[in-house]
């Protein structure tokens, strides 16, 4: 299911050796128990003109509730931020950001991210090529 969220109950049941009804019930239980959180389509960013991807490491000025809440709200509402994770080390967060080109990424960092007033510094690493984009978690079979 992780590789094909549109797989039919019949296809799933054939793959695991169950009849469709029990297979559907198991999928429903996985949804109800929160193992399956959502279904999504994987879109080719280059076909949308998003030719610049980067990991942006972010260090906040301070770690009070107001600063963290402001940063989190920015991340949640900004479509250019594809991923955000709290990290250890010299930075507080790492973002995966999409833009049309390097200049648009610079604009995002300078005019949006740094102007929040809660970011001390950033370091940006452009993604030159992605060899694997999966999203599927390893599951023992």
Automatic annotation (TrEMBL):
UniProt keyword terms in alphabetical order: DNA-binding, Transcription, Transcription regulation
GO cellular component: cytosol
Pfam families: AsnC_trans_reg, HTH_24
HTH asnC-type domain mapped to chain residues: 1-51
Listed GO biological process terms: regulation of DNA-templated transcription; response to amino acid
GO molecular function: sequence-specific DNA binding
Name this protein carries in UniProt: Leucine-responsive regulatory protein
Gene: lrp_5
